[in-house]
Amino acid sequence: MKRKLYKKLLEEKNKKISIIIGPRQVGKTTLLKQLHKKLKGLYLDLDIIENVEKINTYEKLLNQLKIEGYSNNKFYLFLDEFQRFTDLTKILKNIVDHHPKIKIYATGSSSITIKNQVQESLAGRKYLHYLYPLDFEEFLELKNIDTKKLHQLNKLTGTFNEFHKELEEFLIYGGYPEVITSKNKKETLSSIFDTFIKKELVNYLNIKEIIGVKKLIQYIAINNGQKLNITDISQKLNLKRNDVENYLEILNETFIIKKITPYYTNKNKEIIKAYKEYFIDPGVRNYFCNNFNQLEIRNDTGFLFETFILGEIMKKSSYEIKYWQNKQGQEIDFIIDKIHEQIGLEIKYKKKLKNEDFKNLKKIKLKSFIINLSEQENNKLLFTNINKVLT
Question: What distances in angstroms separate CA 200 from CA 219, 229, 230, 289, one per listed residue?
């Protein structure tokens, strides 16, 4: 299958540099190879040292392009894991500035390295895209399940009863393509994130620090979606406060977790108030807290459903996502901040709603919805229609 991002990237084939970043093992390499198959040109995996040596100067890269057939004609260059070579952005800048007929597609797994490189060197020359694990519609497509029912829902209400089994699987094992197609999903998740710890984190941390990060990941997994007290975490895990903050930043920038800050009309308060951390993928969260039990015997299903909805929003938009809480402690799970307007979302993993489920939404004067499991008489929103909220 082709990811939804594929079409958008094809539309940029006459623009400068398209950069795709996201977690490991979500399909960036597959997507890049699909584009290469369609457009032809030169594909280089920069995890291979020999390939880095071919392009580690402007002159070498230009010569390599000419060997592959470039001669002032339209030419496509595909670079996989381009953050491996720290000076590459300067070389790409020179290529783009002096050879406008060369179109570059590049992928990377860490937004820390890439952001630092591209903001300075490639300002005005890049189109940045994020590729996350599969959204629920892509998940169904990969499992060869008809998704017409999702597209037929043209109102803000509907039902999803026929997808209940698939939703439960998604909430337990998540949206990583290899996990979805694997017969042993736990083992596949273990393989992916053992590699993540050994290959990704060692770029930023020493072995001793990795032990601390693993403890922190497990703590976040257990407390997924709950407000964090950094001082309390540092004491419980016997880590320095600065280290905890540094590790959290790395986990955010390597797309394991997502920081959610509170929403206030006074923007200064957003900076100082407590924030939450959610795992982007529910399967990854379950892996790190070692809980793959069925939903009916779990006490964390509500937080898993929140994680799922958060992921759907992130995969379908670039809007900021926040939460709301008043002085009395009443909360709204998510505020989608569109700048020109804000939308409140209450997430309820239940089929029948009670009047009390609406009380928090009445406290905040925003356009708001409840996302729950079945169609109701009042105006509710189902996860199958989250795109209706975003548009």
Answer: 20, 26, 24, 20
Distance CA(81)–CA(221), nearest Å, equals 28
**Which sign, positive or negative, has the C-alpha torsion 222, 227, 230, 233?**
negative
H-type alpha helices, 196-229? 207-222
Average pLDDT, stretch 65-83? Answer: 92
Amino acid at 376: Q
The CATH number of 5-130, from 3.40.50.1010, 1.10.8.60, 3.40.640.10, 3.40.50.300, is: 3.40.50.300
The pLDDT value recorded for residue 386 is 60
Q: Tell me the average pLDDT of the chain.
A: 86
- Residue 155 is predicted with a pLDDT of 46
Distance between CA 104 and CA 126 in Å, rounded? 9
Helix-helix angle 230-237:207-222, to 10 degrees: 120
Residue-wise DSSP of 320-361: EEEEEE-TT--EEEEEEE-SS-EEEEEE---SS--GGGGTTG
Question: Would you state the pLDDT for residue 145?
Answer: 86
The model's pTM: 0.89
Extract long-range pairs of 317-323: CB within 8 Å, 24+ residues apart.
317/390, 318/130, 319/390, 321/258, 321/260, 322/260, 322/261, 322/262, 322/263, 322/270, 323/260, 323/261, 323/262, 323/263, 323/276
pLDDT of res. 30: 96
CA distance linking residue 332 with residue 149, whole number of Å: 29
In contact, 275 and 244? CB cutoff 8 Å: no
According to the model, what pLDDT value does residue 233 have?
A: 95
Q: What is the distance between the alpha carbons of residues 15 and 74, in angstroms, rounded to a whole number? A: 11
- 298-332: pLDDT as tens digits: 999 999 999 999 999 999 888 999 999 888 888 89
Residue 125 near residue 98, CB atoms below 8 Å:
no
In this structure, are residues 119 and 93 in contact, taking their beta carbons and an 8 Å threshold? no
CA angle at residue 261 from 115 to 347, to 5 degrees? 115
Give me the torsion for CA of 77, 80, 85, 88, rounded to 10°: 20
Q: Where are the domains of the chain?
A: 5-130, 136-390
Alpha carbon distance 99, 13 (integer Å): 15
Residues 6+ apart with CB under 8 A from 351: 372, 373, 374
